[in-house]
Protein backbone atom coordinates (compact mmCIF):
# COMPACT_ATOMS: atom_id res chain seq x y z
CA UNK A 1 0.00 0.00 0.00
CA UNK A 2 1.26 3.49 -0.84
CA UNK A 3 0.25 6.88 0.60
CA UNK A 4 1.61 10.28 -0.41
CA UNK A 5 1.51 12.95 2.28
CA UNK A 6 2.94 16.46 2.51
CA UNK A 7 4.96 17.83 5.43
CA UNK A 8 6.12 21.47 5.31
CA UNK A 9 5.45 21.54 1.57
CA UNK A 10 7.56 18.43 0.91
CA UNK A 11 5.79 15.30 -0.45
CA UNK A 12 6.65 11.94 1.11
CA UNK A 13 5.79 8.57 -0.42
CA UNK A 14 4.93 6.02 2.26
CA UNK A 15 5.38 2.34 1.38
CA UNK A 16 3.35 0.25 3.83
CA UNK A 17 2.85 -3.45 4.56
CA UNK A 18 0.12 -5.01 6.70
CA UNK A 19 1.19 -6.09 10.21
CA UNK A 20 -0.44 -7.81 13.16
CA UNK A 21 0.47 -8.40 16.79
CA UNK A 22 -2.72 -10.01 18.16
CA UNK A 23 -3.34 -13.78 18.38
CA UNK A 24 -6.38 -15.72 17.22
CA UNK A 25 -7.55 -16.29 20.79
CA UNK A 26 -6.90 -12.73 21.98
CA UNK A 27 -9.11 -11.91 24.98
CA UNK A 28 -10.07 -8.72 26.79
CA UNK A 29 -10.85 -9.09 30.51
CA UNK A 30 -13.09 -6.65 32.37
CA UNK A 31 -14.87 -6.50 35.73
CA UNK A 32 -18.54 -5.69 36.22
CA UNK A 33 -19.91 -3.50 39.00
CA UNK A 34 -20.16 -6.53 41.28
CA UNK A 35 -16.46 -7.23 40.82
CA UNK A 36 -16.91 -10.40 38.73
CA UNK A 37 -14.36 -11.05 36.00
CA UNK A 38 -15.61 -11.35 32.41
CA UNK A 39 -13.70 -12.22 29.25
CA UNK A 40 -14.66 -11.66 25.63
CA UNK A 41 -13.15 -11.97 22.19
CA UNK A 42 -13.72 -8.45 20.87
CA UNK A 43 -14.01 -7.61 17.20
CA UNK A 44 -10.93 -5.82 15.96
CA UNK A 45 -10.45 -4.59 12.43
CA UNK A 46 -7.26 -6.57 11.96
CA UNK A 47 -6.60 -5.19 8.49
CA UNK A 48 -5.97 -1.68 9.82
CA UNK A 49 -2.37 -1.84 11.01
CA UNK A 50 0.53 -1.14 8.65
CA UNK A 51 4.26 -0.51 8.91
CA UNK A 52 6.76 0.72 6.37
CA UNK A 53 9.01 3.62 5.40
CA UNK A 54 9.17 6.85 3.42
CA UNK A 55 10.77 6.29 0.01
CA UNK A 56 12.68 9.57 0.26
CA UNK A 57 14.34 8.33 3.48
CA UNK A 58 14.95 4.55 3.28
CA UNK A 59 16.06 4.47 6.93
CA UNK A 60 12.80 6.00 8.14
CA UNK A 61 10.05 4.10 9.94
CA UNK A 62 6.29 4.54 9.60
CA UNK A 63 3.54 2.84 11.62
CA UNK A 64 -0.09 3.67 10.83
CA UNK A 65 -3.65 2.57 11.44
CA UNK A 66 -5.58 3.30 8.25
CA UNK A 67 -9.16 2.65 9.45
CA UNK A 68 -11.31 5.74 10.09
CA UNK A 69 -8.49 7.96 8.90
CA UNK A 70 -4.74 7.77 9.35
CA UNK A 71 -3.33 7.58 12.87
CA UNK A 72 0.26 6.89 13.78
CA UNK A 73 3.88 7.99 13.64
CA UNK A 74 6.51 8.90 11.09
CA UNK A 75 10.05 8.63 12.40
CA UNK A 76 13.03 10.05 10.56
CA UNK A 77 16.66 10.21 11.68
CA UNK A 78 16.21 12.69 14.52
CA UNK A 79 12.64 13.96 14.25
CA UNK A 80 9.24 12.31 14.69
CA UNK A 81 5.80 13.35 13.44
CA UNK A 82 2.34 12.30 14.55
CA UNK A 83 -0.62 12.12 12.18
CA UNK A 84 -4.33 11.91 13.00
CA UNK A 85 -7.65 12.87 11.38
CA UNK A 86 -8.97 16.38 11.77
CA UNK A 87 -12.23 15.52 13.53
CA UNK A 88 -14.11 18.61 12.36
CA UNK A 89 -13.20 18.12 8.69
CA UNK A 90 -15.62 16.60 6.17
CA UNK A 91 -12.93 16.30 3.47
CA UNK A 92 -10.69 13.59 4.97
CA UNK A 93 -8.20 16.21 6.16
CA UNK A 94 -5.51 15.31 8.68
CA UNK A 95 -3.21 17.15 11.04
CA UNK A 96 0.52 16.37 11.07
CA UNK A 97 2.58 17.67 13.96
CA UNK A 98 6.14 17.36 15.21
CA UNK A 99 6.28 15.32 18.40
CA UNK A 100 8.02 16.86 21.40
CA UNK A 101 8.15 16.09 25.11
CA UNK A 102 7.14 18.86 27.50
CA UNK A 103 10.28 18.11 29.53
CA UNK A 104 13.23 17.41 27.19
CA UNK A 105 15.54 16.73 30.15
CA UNK A 106 13.52 13.83 31.51
CA UNK A 107 15.59 10.70 32.17
CA UNK A 108 14.81 7.07 32.95
CA UNK A 109 17.23 6.06 35.70
CA UNK A 110 18.70 7.63 38.78
CA UNK A 111 21.97 9.45 38.17
CA UNK A 112 24.00 6.96 40.21
CA UNK A 113 23.01 3.99 38.03
CA UNK A 114 26.35 2.71 36.75
CA UNK A 115 26.55 -1.05 37.29
CA UNK A 116 25.26 -3.70 34.95
CA UNK A 117 22.91 -6.44 36.13
CA UNK A 118 25.49 -9.14 36.71
CA UNK A 119 29.22 -8.54 36.84
CA UNK A 120 30.07 -11.67 34.85
CA UNK A 121 28.04 -10.48 31.85
CA UNK A 122 30.32 -7.62 30.79
CA UNK A 123 29.95 -6.84 27.12
CA UNK A 124 33.14 -4.78 27.06
CA UNK A 125 35.69 -7.59 26.88
CA UNK A 126 33.88 -10.94 26.54
CA UNK A 127 35.92 -14.04 27.33
CA UNK A 128 36.81 -16.35 24.47
CA UNK A 129 34.72 -19.09 26.06
CA UNK A 130 31.77 -16.73 26.17
CA UNK A 131 32.19 -15.79 22.52
CA UNK A 132 31.96 -19.42 21.50
CA UNK A 133 28.60 -19.74 23.22
CA UNK A 134 27.09 -16.72 21.49
CA UNK A 135 25.62 -18.62 18.57
CA UNK A 136 23.50 -17.23 15.76
CA UNK A 137 20.18 -15.94 17.03
CA UNK A 138 17.24 -18.28 16.55
CA UNK A 139 13.60 -17.12 16.47
CA UNK A 140 12.23 -16.44 19.98
CA UNK A 141 8.65 -15.81 21.12
CA UNK A 142 7.45 -13.56 23.95
CA UNK A 143 3.81 -13.47 25.11
CA UNK A 144 2.89 -10.36 27.08
CA UNK A 145 -0.19 -9.75 29.26
CA UNK A 146 -1.17 -6.09 29.62
CA UNK A 147 -3.32 -4.60 32.38
CA UNK A 148 -4.48 -0.98 32.26
CA UNK A 149 -5.55 0.64 35.55
CA UNK A 150 -8.54 2.90 35.86
CA UNK A 151 -6.81 6.19 35.31
CA UNK A 152 7.62 -2.81 19.63
CA UNK A 153 11.26 -2.58 18.31
CA UNK A 154 12.62 -6.11 18.88
CA UNK A 155 13.03 -7.37 15.29
CA UNK A 156 16.84 -7.06 15.59
CA UNK A 157 16.71 -9.90 18.12
CA UNK A 158 14.39 -12.06 16.01
CA UNK A 159 12.07 -11.80 19.00
CA UNK A 160 8.34 -11.87 18.21
CA UNK A 161 6.39 -9.94 20.87
CA UNK A 162 2.73 -11.01 20.96
CA UNK A 163 0.06 -9.33 23.08
CA UNK A 164 -1.68 -12.41 24.52
CA UNK A 165 -4.52 -10.58 26.28
CA UNK A 166 -5.59 -7.27 27.79
CA UNK A 167 -7.28 -6.59 31.12
CA UNK A 168 -9.04 -3.32 31.91
CA UNK A 169 -9.71 -2.23 35.48
CA UNK A 170 -12.58 0.00 34.44
CA UNK A 171 -14.61 0.16 37.66
CA UNK A 172 -12.01 -0.14 40.38
CA UNK A 173 -8.39 -1.15 40.66
CA UNK A 174 -7.76 -4.71 41.85
CA UNK A 175 -4.76 -3.52 43.88
CA UNK A 176 -3.75 -0.16 45.30
CA UNK A 177 -1.82 1.89 42.74
CA UNK A 178 -0.62 4.43 45.29
CA UNK A 179 3.08 4.84 45.97
CA UNK A 180 6.07 4.59 43.67
CA UNK A 181 6.48 2.07 40.87
CA UNK A 182 8.52 -0.35 42.99
CA UNK A 183 5.83 -0.33 45.71
CA UNK A 184 3.12 -1.12 43.16
CA UNK A 185 5.28 -3.87 41.65
CA UNK A 186 5.37 -5.80 44.92
CA UNK A 187 1.57 -5.63 45.23
CA UNK A 188 1.11 -6.51 41.56
CA UNK A 189 3.34 -9.58 41.89
CA UNK A 190 1.31 -10.83 44.86
CA UNK A 191 -1.96 -10.27 42.97
CA UNK A 192 -0.58 -11.89 39.82
CA UNK A 193 0.39 -15.09 41.65
CA UNK A 194 -3.22 -15.58 42.72
CA UNK A 195 -5.16 -14.42 39.66
CA UNK A 196 -3.11 -14.83 36.46
CA UNK A 197 -2.01 -18.44 36.83
CA UNK A 198 -4.23 -19.87 34.07
CA UNK A 199 -3.88 -17.07 31.52
CA UNK A 200 -1.05 -17.72 29.03
CA UNK A 201 1.77 -15.20 29.19
CA UNK A 202 5.53 -14.92 29.62
CA UNK A 203 5.37 -11.58 31.40
CA UNK A 204 2.62 -9.28 32.66
CA UNK A 205 2.73 -5.47 32.78
CA UNK A 206 0.51 -3.05 34.65
CA UNK A 207 0.20 0.34 32.92
CA UNK A 208 -0.50 3.20 35.33
CA UNK A 209 -1.17 6.89 34.67
CA UNK A 210 0.61 9.20 37.08
CA UNK A 211 0.85 12.96 36.54
CA UNK A 212 4.25 13.43 38.20
CA UNK A 213 5.70 10.03 39.17
CA UNK A 214 8.98 9.68 40.98
CA UNK A 215 9.82 6.60 38.89
CA UNK A 216 8.43 5.76 35.47
CA UNK A 217 8.88 2.01 35.73
CA UNK A 218 9.94 -0.97 37.80
CA UNK A 219 10.80 -4.56 36.93
CA UNK A 220 13.22 -7.40 37.66
CA UNK A 221 16.14 -7.68 35.19
CA UNK A 222 16.77 -10.95 33.39
CA UNK A 223 13.73 -12.73 34.89
CA UNK A 224 11.49 -13.13 31.83
CA UNK A 225 11.17 -16.90 32.44
CA UNK A 226 10.99 -16.78 36.24
CA UNK A 227 7.33 -17.13 37.26
CA UNK A 228 8.04 -15.48 40.61
CA UNK A 229 9.28 -12.23 39.05
CA UNK A 230 7.88 -12.05 35.48
CA UNK A 231 6.10 -8.72 35.90
CA UNK A 232 6.64 -5.00 35.53
CA UNK A 233 5.10 -1.58 36.11
CA UNK A 234 5.12 1.19 33.49
CA UNK A 235 3.91 4.67 34.42
CA UNK A 236 2.64 7.19 31.88
CA UNK A 237 3.60 10.71 33.07
CA UNK A 238 2.13 13.96 31.82
CA UNK A 239 5.54 15.14 30.62
CA UNK A 240 5.94 12.64 27.75
CA UNK A 241 4.05 11.62 24.63
CA UNK A 242 3.19 8.17 23.29
CA UNK A 243 6.56 7.83 21.56
CA UNK A 244 8.36 8.44 24.84
CA UNK A 245 6.12 5.93 26.62
CA UNK A 246 6.91 3.30 23.99
CA UNK A 247 10.59 3.76 24.85
CA UNK A 248 9.80 3.13 28.53
CA UNK A 249 8.07 -0.15 27.60
CA UNK A 250 10.92 -1.13 25.26
CA UNK A 251 13.59 -0.44 27.88
CA UNK A 252 11.73 -2.34 30.61
CA UNK A 253 11.22 -5.34 28.30
CA UNK A 254 14.88 -5.02 27.36
CA UNK A 255 15.84 -5.33 31.02
CA UNK A 256 13.60 -8.40 31.29
CA UNK A 257 15.50 -10.14 28.47
CA UNK A 258 18.95 -9.45 29.87
CA UNK A 259 19.84 -6.05 28.40
CA UNK A 260 21.66 -3.35 30.34
CA UNK A 261 21.75 0.40 29.81
CA UNK A 262 24.31 1.59 27.28
CA UNK A 263 27.66 3.08 28.20
CA UNK A 264 27.87 5.76 25.51
CA UNK A 265 31.67 5.51 25.46
CA UNK A 266 31.51 1.81 24.54
CA UNK A 267 28.19 1.29 22.76
CA UNK A 268 26.97 2.54 19.39
CA UNK A 269 24.25 2.00 16.80
CA UNK A 270 23.57 3.25 13.27
CA UNK A 271 21.01 5.82 14.40
CA UNK A 272 21.16 9.08 16.34
CA UNK A 273 19.94 7.39 19.54
CA UNK A 274 20.10 3.77 20.73
CA UNK A 275 17.08 2.33 22.56
CA UNK A 276 18.92 1.46 25.79
CA UNK A 277 20.47 4.94 26.02
CA UNK A 278 19.53 6.92 29.14
CA UNK A 279 18.34 9.80 26.93
CA UNK A 280 16.25 7.73 24.52
CA UNK A 281 12.91 8.58 26.14
CA UNK A 282 13.24 12.26 25.23
CA UNK A 283 14.93 11.72 21.85
CA UNK A 284 13.03 11.98 18.58
CA UNK A 285 13.39 9.83 15.47
CA UNK A 286 14.24 6.19 14.81
CA UNK A 287 15.89 4.22 17.60
CA UNK A 288 17.51 0.80 17.37
CA UNK A 289 19.44 -1.43 19.74
CA UNK A 290 23.19 -0.94 20.12
CA UNK A 291 26.02 -3.42 19.64
CA UNK A 292 26.12 -3.79 23.44
CA UNK A 293 22.41 -4.67 23.56
CA UNK A 294 22.90 -7.26 20.82
CA UNK A 295 25.71 -8.87 22.82
CA UNK A 296 23.68 -8.76 26.05
CA UNK A 297 20.75 -10.49 24.34
CA UNK A 298 22.88 -13.16 22.66
CA UNK A 299 24.43 -13.94 26.02
CA UNK A 300 21.04 -14.06 27.75
CA UNK A 301 19.35 -16.41 25.27
CA UNK A 302 22.37 -18.74 25.39
CA UNK A 303 21.55 -19.44 29.06
CA UNK A 304 18.80 -21.52 30.62
CA UNK A 305 17.16 -18.42 32.07
CA UNK A 306 15.73 -17.78 28.57
CA UNK A 307 14.26 -21.24 27.94
CA UNK A 308 10.65 -20.01 27.86
CA UNK A 309 11.39 -17.86 24.80
CA UNK A 310 12.30 -20.90 22.73
CA UNK A 311 8.85 -22.46 22.74
CA UNK A 312 6.76 -22.00 19.63
CA UNK A 313 3.83 -19.78 20.50
CA UNK A 314 0.33 -21.19 20.10
CA UNK A 315 -0.82 -17.62 19.68
CA UNK A 316 -0.59 -17.29 15.93
CA UNK A 317 -1.52 -13.83 14.61
CA UNK A 318 -4.86 -13.48 12.86
CA UNK A 319 -3.08 -12.04 9.84
CA UNK A 320 0.42 -13.35 9.36
CA UNK A 321 3.10 -10.91 8.29
CA UNK A 322 4.29 -11.28 4.73
CA UNK A 323 7.42 -13.47 4.47
CA UNK A 324 10.61 -11.43 4.43
CA UNK A 325 13.38 -12.93 2.34
CA UNK A 326 16.79 -12.48 3.92
CA UNK A 327 15.80 -12.46 7.59
CA UNK A 328 17.18 -15.97 8.19
CA UNK A 329 13.75 -17.40 9.06
CA UNK A 330 12.20 -20.01 6.75
CA UNK A 331 8.66 -18.74 6.13
CA UNK A 332 5.75 -19.58 3.84
CA UNK A 333 6.54 -19.62 0.09
CA UNK A 334 10.30 -19.75 0.83
CA UNK A 335 12.39 -22.77 -0.15
CA UNK A 336 15.32 -21.52 1.92
CA UNK A 337 16.42 -18.41 3.81
CA UNK A 338 20.11 -18.14 4.61
CA UNK A 339 20.00 -14.48 5.66
CA UNK A 340 21.21 -11.47 3.70
CA UNK A 341 24.20 -11.34 1.37
CA UNK A 342 26.66 -10.82 4.22
CA UNK A 343 25.17 -13.49 6.50
CA UNK A 344 24.42 -16.24 3.99
CA UNK A 345 26.71 -19.27 4.30
CA UNK A 346 24.87 -21.27 1.63
CA UNK A 347 25.35 -19.09 -1.44
CA UNK A 348 25.93 -22.21 -3.59
CA UNK A 349 22.59 -23.63 -2.46
CA UNK A 350 20.23 -20.72 -1.86
CA UNK A 351 19.55 -17.50 -3.76
CA UNK A 352 19.55 -14.98 -0.90
CA UNK A 353 17.64 -12.46 -3.04
CA UNK A 354 14.67 -14.72 -3.86
CA UNK A 355 14.96 -17.40 -1.13
CA UNK A 356 14.71 -20.11 -3.80
CA UNK A 357 16.93 -23.19 -4.04
CA UNK A 358 19.47 -23.24 -6.83
CA UNK A 359 19.04 -26.10 -9.28
CA UNK A 360 18.19 -29.50 -7.83
CA UNK A 361 19.85 -29.08 -4.43
CA UNK A 362 18.13 -30.58 -1.38
CA UNK A 363 18.48 -27.65 1.03
CA UNK A 364 19.81 -24.13 1.32
CA UNK A 365 19.76 -23.19 5.00
CA UNK A 366 19.51 -24.67 8.47
CA UNK A 367 21.78 -26.54 10.91
CA UNK A 368 21.08 -29.88 9.16
CA UNK A 369 22.09 -28.67 5.70
CA UNK A 370 25.65 -29.46 4.58
CA UNK A 371 28.00 -27.22 2.62
CA UNK A 372 27.25 -29.48 -0.38
CA UNK A 373 23.56 -28.51 -0.20
CA UNK A 374 22.54 -31.95 1.02
CA UNK A 375 20.58 -32.98 4.11
CA UNK A 376 22.78 -34.18 6.95
CA UNK A 377 22.57 -37.92 7.58
CA UNK A 378 20.45 -39.24 10.43
CA UNK A 379 22.27 -38.95 13.75
CA UNK A 380 24.37 -35.90 12.89
CA UNK A 381 24.58 -33.66 16.02
CA UNK A 382 22.86 -30.33 15.45
CA UNK A 383 22.49 -28.95 18.98
CA UNK A 384 25.06 -29.81 21.65
CA UNK A 385 24.13 -30.59 25.22
CA UNK A 386 24.92 -27.74 27.60
CA UNK A 387 24.56 -29.85 30.75
CA UNK A 388 25.90 -33.45 30.91
CA UNK A 389 23.13 -34.70 33.21
CA UNK A 390 20.07 -32.59 32.50
CA UNK A 391 20.27 -31.59 28.83
CA UNK A 392 20.43 -33.82 25.75
CA UNK A 393 22.28 -33.46 22.47
CA UNK A 394 19.86 -33.24 19.53
CA UNK A 395 20.48 -34.89 16.15
CA UNK A 396 19.34 -34.36 12.57
CA UNK A 397 16.50 -36.66 11.48
CA UNK A 398 17.64 -36.93 7.86
CA UNK A 399 14.45 -35.44 6.41
CA UNK A 400 14.68 -31.77 7.39
CA UNK A 401 17.32 -29.06 7.30
CA UNK A 402 16.11 -27.87 10.72
CA UNK A 403 17.23 -29.40 14.00
CA UNK A 404 14.65 -31.32 16.01
CA UNK A 405 13.05 -29.47 18.99
CA UNK A 406 15.21 -28.90 22.07
CA UNK A 407 14.67 -31.55 24.75
CA UNK A 408 15.98 -32.02 28.28
CA UNK A 409 15.48 -34.11 31.40
CA UNK A 410 12.19 -33.90 33.27
CA UNK A 411 12.18 -31.14 35.89
CA UNK A 412 12.88 -32.71 39.28
CA UNK A 413 15.17 -35.43 37.92
CA UNK A 414 18.04 -36.03 40.37
CA UNK A 415 21.56 -34.97 39.38
CA UNK A 416 24.99 -34.57 41.01
CA UNK A 417 24.70 -37.93 42.76
CA UNK A 418 21.30 -37.07 44.16
CA UNK A 419 22.31 -33.76 45.75
CA UNK A 420 20.51 -31.52 43.24
CA UNK A 421 17.64 -31.48 40.76
CA UNK A 422 17.33 -30.79 37.04
CA UNK A 423 15.31 -27.73 36.12
CA UNK A 424 14.74 -26.67 32.50
CA UNK A 425 17.82 -28.59 31.37
CA UNK A 426 20.26 -27.44 34.03
CA UNK A 427 21.48 -29.15 37.21
CA UNK A 428 20.58 -26.53 39.78
CA UNK A 429 23.33 -26.92 42.36
CA UNK A 430 23.84 -24.10 44.83
CA UNK A 431 27.55 -24.01 43.91
CA UNK A 432 26.74 -23.36 40.24
CA UNK A 433 24.18 -20.69 41.06
CA UNK A 434 26.51 -18.89 43.49
CA UNK A 435 29.44 -18.99 41.05
CA UNK A 436 27.22 -17.52 38.33
CA UNK A 437 26.33 -14.54 40.53
CA UNK A 438 29.45 -13.89 42.62
CA UNK A 439 32.14 -15.32 40.36
CA UNK A 440 34.53 -18.23 40.33
CA UNK A 441 35.17 -19.74 43.76
CA UNK A 442 31.80 -18.80 45.28
CA UNK A 443 29.90 -21.76 46.73
CA UNK A 444 26.58 -22.60 48.30
CA UNK A 445 26.42 -21.60 51.96
CA UNK A 446 26.02 -24.04 54.88
CA UNK A 447 22.52 -25.10 55.87
CA UNK A 448 22.50 -22.66 58.82
CA UNK A 449 22.78 -19.72 56.41
CA UNK A 450 19.81 -20.89 54.34
CA UNK A 451 17.81 -21.33 57.51
CA UNK A 452 18.58 -17.79 58.65
CA UNK A 453 17.88 -15.91 55.39
CA UNK A 454 14.65 -17.81 54.70
CA UNK A 455 13.01 -17.49 58.10
CA UNK A 456 11.34 -14.10 57.54
CA UNK A 457 7.94 -13.14 56.09
CA UNK A 458 9.45 -11.26 53.16
CA UNK A 459 8.55 -11.26 49.47
CA UNK A 460 12.03 -12.27 48.29
CA UNK A 461 12.71 -14.71 51.13
CA UNK A 462 9.88 -17.21 51.16
CA UNK A 463 8.64 -20.68 50.34
CA UNK A 464 5.38 -19.82 48.65
CA UNK A 465 2.36 -17.61 49.24
CA UNK A 466 -1.00 -17.87 50.96
CA UNK A 467 -3.67 -15.20 50.48
CA UNK A 468 -1.04 -13.13 48.65
CA UNK A 469 1.20 -13.15 51.75
CA UNK A 470 4.71 -14.71 51.65
CA UNK A 471 5.23 -17.76 53.85
CA UNK A 472 8.45 -18.40 55.77
CA UNK A 473 10.30 -21.61 54.90
CA UNK A 474 9.96 -24.59 57.20
CA UNK A 475 13.22 -26.24 58.21
CA UNK A 476 12.84 -29.01 55.61
CA UNK A 477 12.22 -26.45 52.83
CA UNK A 478 14.82 -23.74 53.49
CA UNK A 479 16.94 -24.82 50.50
CA UNK A 480 13.96 -23.96 48.27
CA UNK A 481 13.90 -20.34 49.42
CA UNK A 482 16.36 -17.53 48.79
CA UNK A 483 19.87 -18.47 47.66
CA UNK A 484 22.66 -18.11 50.23
CA UNK A 485 26.35 -18.22 49.27
CA UNK A 486 29.86 -17.89 50.65
CA UNK A 487 32.47 -16.17 48.51
CA UNK A 488 36.27 -16.10 48.80
CA UNK A 489 36.62 -12.57 47.45
CA UNK A 490 37.72 -9.73 49.72
CA UNK A 491 35.80 -7.07 47.81
CA UNK A 492 32.11 -6.68 48.62
CA UNK A 493 29.57 -7.39 45.90
CA UNK A 494 28.09 -4.06 44.78
CA UNK A 495 25.08 -3.25 42.65
CA UNK A 496 22.85 -0.22 42.25
CA UNK A 497 19.81 -2.30 41.27
CA UNK A 498 19.71 -4.97 43.97
CA UNK A 499 20.53 -5.15 47.66
CA UNK A 500 23.17 -7.41 49.22
CA UNK A 501 22.91 -8.88 52.73
CA UNK A 502 25.95 -10.18 54.64
CA UNK A 503 25.36 -12.33 57.73
CA UNK A 504 27.87 -13.87 60.15
CA UNK A 505 26.44 -17.28 61.03
CA UNK A 506 28.34 -20.10 62.75
CA UNK A 507 31.79 -18.83 61.69
CA UNK A 508 30.67 -18.25 58.09
CA UNK A 509 30.10 -14.97 56.24
CA UNK A 510 26.92 -15.68 54.27
CA UNK A 511 25.84 -13.43 51.42
CA UNK A 512 22.48 -13.20 49.67
CA UNK A 513 20.99 -10.75 47.20
CA UNK A 514 17.55 -9.52 46.18
CA UNK A 515 15.51 -6.51 45.16
CA UNK A 516 14.28 -5.03 41.90
CA UNK A 517 15.33 -2.38 39.42
CA UNK A 518 13.33 0.80 39.03
CA UNK A 519 13.49 3.69 36.60
CA UNK A 520 13.57 7.22 37.96
CA UNK A 521 12.25 10.44 36.52
CA UNK A 522 13.60 13.64 38.16
CA UNK A 523 10.96 15.98 39.49
From TrEMBL:
Occurrences of domain Disintegrin (ranges): 322-411
One GO cellular component term noted in the UniProt record for this chain: plasma membrane
Superkingdom of source: Eukaryota
Entries under SMART domains matching the protein: ACR, DISIN
One GO term (biological process): male gonad development
Compartments it resides in: Membrane
Keyword annotations of the record: Disulfide bond, Glycoprotein, Integrin, Membrane, Transmembrane
InterPro entries, per database record: ADAM_Cys-rich, Disintegrin_CS, Disintegrin_dom, Disintegrin_dom_sf, MetalloPept_cat_dom_sf, Peptidase_M12B, Peptidase_M12B_N, Reprolysin_adamalysin
Disulfide bonds listed in the record: 269-274
Membrane-topology descriptor: Single-pass type I membrane protein
Single GO MF annotation: metalloendopeptidase activity
Classification via Pfam families: ADAM_CR (PF08516), Disintegrin (PF00200), Pep_M12B_propep (PF01562), Reprolysin (PF01421)
Peptidase M12B domain span: 133-313
PANTHER family: ADAM A DISINTEGRIN AND METALLOPROTEASE DOMAIN (PTHR11905), DISINTEGRIN AND METALLOPROTEINASE DOMAIN-CONTAINING PROTEIN 18 (PTHR11905:SF158)
Record's protein name: Testis cDNA, clone: QtsA-17441, similar to human a disintegrin and metalloproteinase domain 18 (ADAM18),mRNA, RefSeq: NM_014237.1
Species this chain originates from: Macaca fascicularis (Crab-eating macaque)
Amino acid sequence: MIYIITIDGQPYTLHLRKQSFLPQNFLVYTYNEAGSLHSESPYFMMHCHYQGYAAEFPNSFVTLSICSGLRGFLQFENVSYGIEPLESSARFEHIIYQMKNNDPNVSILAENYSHIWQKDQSYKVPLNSQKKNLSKLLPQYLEIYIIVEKALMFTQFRLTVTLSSLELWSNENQISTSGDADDILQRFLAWKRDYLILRPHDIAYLLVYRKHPKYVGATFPGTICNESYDAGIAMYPDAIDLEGFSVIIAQLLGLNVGLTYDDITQCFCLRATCIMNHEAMSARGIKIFSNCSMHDYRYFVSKFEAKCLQKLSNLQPLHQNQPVCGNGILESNEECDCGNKKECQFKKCCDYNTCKLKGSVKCGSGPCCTSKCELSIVGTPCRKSVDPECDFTEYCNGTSSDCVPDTYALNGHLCKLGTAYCYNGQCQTTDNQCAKIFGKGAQGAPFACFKEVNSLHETSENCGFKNSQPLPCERKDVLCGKLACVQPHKNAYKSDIQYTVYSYIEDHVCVSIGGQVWCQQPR
